[in-house]
Amino acid sequence: MPDAPRHAGAPRRVLSIAWREFRTTVLTKGFLFSALVFPLLMVGVSMLLPILMATSIQPMTGAILVEAPAAATDAMRAELERAAKDPATALRERVERGEEPELDDATTALTPIESPIEPIAADQVEAAKERVRSGDALALVIIPPASLDAQSKDPTYELFVATKTSPKHTSIVSRSVREAIVRLRVQASGADYQRTMDLLKRPEPNILRLTDDGTEAKERLEGRMLVPGAFMLLMWITTFTGANYLLTNTIEEKGSKVIEVLLAAVSPMELLAGKILGQLGSTAVMLGMYGLAGLAGLSALAMMDLVPVSSLVLMVAFALTAYLMIASMLTAVGSAVTNLQEAQALVGPVMLVLIVPLMLWLPISENPNGAFAVVCSFLPPISPFIMVLRATGTSEPVPGWQVALSLAVSAASSVAFLWLASRIFRVGILMQGKPPTPRELLRWARYR
Amino acid sequence: MNASVVIQGVRKRFGSTEAVRGIDLSVPAGCLCGVLGPNGAGKSTTIRMLMSIIYPDQGSIRVLGSDAIAMKDRIGYLPEERGLYKKMRVLEYLAYIGALKGLSGSEGRRRALAWLERIELPGVERKRCEELSKGMQQKVQFIASVMHDPELIILDEPFSGLDPVNSRVLARIVTELHAGGCTILFSTHQMHHAESLCDRVVLINRGEKLLDDSLDAVRAGHRPTTVVARTDGPFEQAAAAAARVPGVASVERAEDGSVLAHAADRTDAIDLLAPLAATRLFSGVSLKRPTLDDIFVELVTAHGGHARQPEPNHA
């Protein structure tokens, strides 16, 4: 026999299998789109959106026709001038007064205001409406004198705009009318407007949670609910997607009969290890891409303080254990069946367990250090998801020993799941015919 | 001579079915051994145990002096149920299997290209496996089993599904590999392949070994039981005369019109030659040597027929 360069050894064989598994998954159109293009698109859109919105700003021109007492007309003119001169201050004052900012407030504030105020008489209203309809004027405002009365309990006004008028422009006019009426009514009551506005400012709460370990943690809804939920969802979706690729690839290899060719070259354990390692790579790519997209979004919103490095490290560590457990289960299922339909019957119970963390998101976010949450953190295979949900929240720090113990339990469970999967895999992969029941699967694990 | 394969007292049961019943086998190094048997005889199960894909319930198996798992890089195996990654390109697939067998990527590709030429399959290296015909796929699968220059090659039904032209190509390569020093073990239920290639045959039926010897010894051990008597005259007259010869149990018509005279039990067919010639109705008489097919049918029939059960559907 001619002598050839040999690179034998289980690690090299495992790496060869892993590399093929990774390549055949990652280099598909579906994966490239979902794991690479889509997150990049998300980042791109989040960066482009402010630019697109800024370029869509149209200056407000066209006369605003006002049928109102002279004081109201003057007050309205003053409001518009203030808004035109310093839109940012105007916006801040509104928010400080307790007004909920609207979605397009930022672009509304940036809109150049060039519309003159044009007072009209009551008998000119119909002609004014016609001017607005034809586009000759921007809007018609009618303020009844009674609305300026300090005693009036139901002040109102009418605003007429054309069908084509920009909602932003309508909003600016409407707001200036409202501000003018409030200002005049306050003055009519004899009170000082600025003083009254200051009195109406709503206090900003500074909620602090006093934790058992003696620290104080600032309460933030997004830190308490949204960020941990996003961490868990990201982990759940990526690990489950990676494991699902394993399931379908295993079924395909078994169905195409290539499995016996592979088993002639490698042991079942090497094959299983290579496949799980390969899909771990594709899962890492997905986790990395979506994670980066999320971080880019948080960075754009100046909320990076919600995601400390420790949370990222914890998520990666727990995601690894979660992936190993789910991948073990789904590979065992894939080895035991011959098509996806048969797989569904066995994947069902697995899914029932894995859906639990999603159902527990809200209750555990509400009380991350409750007895139920603590117990769930040590129950595989949901333990990684529950601990990430608890440990990445900003409201209550989780005791370090619980994090360490949960990680240890999850890691040990991963090893146990891998062992069980390898026992089932080596038997199931050569099986044909009727799919096994879950009980038969467990019996296979005891085969010699 | 060293034995490449040693099987001792191997048994394998699938549920209530005993697929292999205490088989002993020793395949000398450098031998080209055919494992014969009807469908469901236990050939593939035995081979899978040889490859450590499944494990025996009892008995021991040594391959190249060790466990097959430790020797996988030195064994080439073409399974009966063969498959390919349909979407993979031929060269990529072969390089991948080569890598699993210990070849570097460049060496795997070099050997794959050389083998594609050798097996008369040039120019397909860039094609996806699913684009190949069934016969071409089978050739690619054969390359995957031998491209790492194994010492022992185990081929499970290598000729099934191949047309006569490709069968000849494969038979030629098997002969060349054998001549190069490889030990080759292949299973088949097509006797003519075993007869033309093997220097040793093993017959398995119902999970038991019925025969294990060199081809010459097998032939020598099965004496002729039929005489071919050629006649130029009417068949009926010649057949009637042959039937009257003492020791002839029955006669029948051969495809070429000759009379086939079957010897009765305890009668040596050679003793029928002179009496048949003496009838002066035949232009020539000769012994009909039993083919491997005849021996196979005879042994299997004597062993109670073939294939007691379908192929097991599980490991």
Task: Please specify the SSE layout and strand pairing.
The complex is a heterodimer of chains A (448) and B (315).
Chain A: H1 10-26, H2 29-55, E1 63-67, H3 70-85, H4 87-96, H5 105-109, E2 117-119, H6 125-134, E3 137-142, E4 158-161, H7 167-188, H8 193-200, E5 208-210, E6 216-218, H9 221-255, H10 259-263, H11 268-300, H12 309-336, H13 340-354, H14 356-359, H15 361-366, H16 371-376, H17 383-391, H18 400-428, H19 438-444
Parallel strand pairs in A: 1-2, 1-3
Antiparallel strand pairs in A: 3-4, 5-6
Chain B: E1 3-14, E2 17-28, E3 32-36, H1 43-50, E4 58-63, E5 75-78, H2 90-100, H3 105-118, H4 134-146, E6 152-156, H5 164-179, E7 183-188, H6 191-197, E8 200-205, E9 208-214, H7 215-221, E10 226-230, H8 235-244, E11 248-253, E12 259-263, H9 273-278, E13 284-288, H10 292-302
Parallel strand pairs in B: 3-7, 3-8, 5-6, 6-7
Antiparallel strand pairs in B: 1-2, 1-4, 8-9, 10-12, 10-13, 11-12
Q: Biggest sheet of chain B, strands in spatial order?
A: 5-6-7-3-8-9
In the CATH hierarchy, the architecture of the largest domain in chain B is 3-Layer(aba) Sandwich
Oligomeric status of the shown chains? Answer: heterodimer
How much helicity do the residues of chain A have?
55-70%
Strand count of chain A: 6
Q: Whole-Å distance between the termini of chain A?
A: 36 Å
